[in-house]
């Protein structure tokens, strides 16, 4: 479904990604593991159109994303959870969730919101609170819920477990498994291999902007 | 007591005028992250267009109260024509660039607009005072006060209220808030930032032109209007916090009342007092009174 082929990204003249190729099929969780600065975040940002691709190709469901304007990618069904959550502080949790629907003019937004609340009742309890008042863990959950609003086919998660309590990390893992069973593709960037291998069918290891290893993992069902 | 009331009323009128100009400036900065040095020229364009519209209107011998519609129409036309022209023609090429480039580019735009206005309207003053006289004076608790000044307060209240409702209760308004706080994530969520930039700049231009248009009947419209206005508007938005609309309301009120107090009591210190207030605010809150709120990082 998502395919990166020999993707190169440079920032201010420095090569950050050097020929990254990977694949995320529908209904699969794929891990992208590497140390800080290895290029995980840049890979996700390139898929979202937030980092400029110098050469190579990014395809999603048969469509070439490489030169597609960044704001049109969410509308294709791609949701993105950045590492630092990036919620909009003065808006309520529900408004944060609805932002993608407003931005791309989703008609099925109320149904989608109900579906998200069923999947994550803990987010519904926060619906009326302003995002600025949430704890870090709550923000992670809300950021995941917000990505699901537009992300009906593919989810890109950047360090979703970082800084979470074990119980909350377990809960996110549980949600990801439900999403996989519903046919979503998930690309999970993590620095901790153990976390990923428990969930992912396949793990790519990235080092200094290059994929150095590709393994089938034990976590896949 | 009577003098205190007059000081407060004068302050309120001055604040309304300042708010119309600085609301657009701060909104444009909040969304586009560009400090538009040519914002005062948009105000001056509004003033010139309104003066011409009013003179044309009365030359035709039309129903005098309709001249207020001419003022409004002139502001809207300037906003809708000049806003998109400047945003598409200049600003979109300098988004995200070094602030020095942006300041140079908008300063160049200021110079071009200044000369452009001289080319179109010449250097002689325009007097479009008739809408001012139409409202006569009203009695406020026994004190006579120009009716037109009350109208100016009404225009600022309507513009501010309308803007606030738009931002709080419409989907586009909520997207504008998202962009003010995090343009990049807004794009990732699907917001067409380029369209929202265009809309915001046009809205900011309409506000500046509205300020100019409704000021035109109170002054003689001459070259050089822009400079006086932009310096004061900067003081207001710096006091309020760059990018904050609430801040521009409080900043305008503060500057308005302080200036009015000085004009009535120590006229020599009129301008000095404004910058003293700014310096004091910056001393204790370098980010201004209402900085943009951040979410917790832990």
TrEMBL record, chain A:
Q: Which domain of life is it from?
A: Bacteria
Q: What is this protein called?
A: High-affinity branched-chain amino acid transport ATP-binding protein LivF
Question: Any idea which UniProt keywords this protein has?
Answer: Amino-acid transport, ATP-binding, Nucleotide-binding, Transport
Listed InterPro entries? AAA+_ATPase, ABC_transporter-like_ATP-bd, ABC_transporter-like_CS, BCAA_Transport_ATP-bd_LivF, P-loop_NTPase
Which parts of the sequence belong to the ABC transporter domain? 2-221
Which SUPFAM superfamilies does its entry note?
Answer: P-loop containing nucleoside triphosphate hydrolases
Asked if the keyword ATP-binding belongs to this entry, the reply reads: yes
Among the GO molecular function terms of this UniProt record, one is: branched-chain amino acid transmembrane transporter activity
A Pfam family reported for this protein in Swiss-Prot or TrEMBL: ABC_tran
Under SMART domains, the record lists: AAA
Its BP terms in the Gene Ontology are:
L-amino acid transport
Q: Does the keyword Transcription regulation apply?
A: no
Q: Which family does it belong to?
A: Belongs to the ABC transporter superfamily.
List all membrane-crossing ranges. Answer: none
Automatic annotation (TrEMBL), chain B:
One BP term from GO: amino acid transport
A Gene Ontology term for the protein's cellular component: plasma membrane
Where is this protein localized, as stated in its record?
A: Cell membrane
- So where does this one cross the membrane? 12-35, 42-58, 70-91, 103-123, 143-167, 196-219, 231-257, 269-292
Q: Name one Pfam family in it.
A: BPD_transp_2
Which molecular function GO terms apply here?
transmembrane transporter activity
Q: Which UniProt keywords apply?
A: Amino-acid transport, Cell membrane, Membrane, Transmembrane, Transmembrane helix, Transport
This protein's membrane topology, according to the annotation, is: Multi-pass membrane protein
Domain of life from the UniProt record = Bacteria
Family statement drawn from the similarity comment of this UniProt entry: Belongs to the binding-protein-dependent transport system permease family. LivHM subfamily.
Q: What is this protein called?
A: High-affinity branched-chain amino acid transport system permease protein LivH
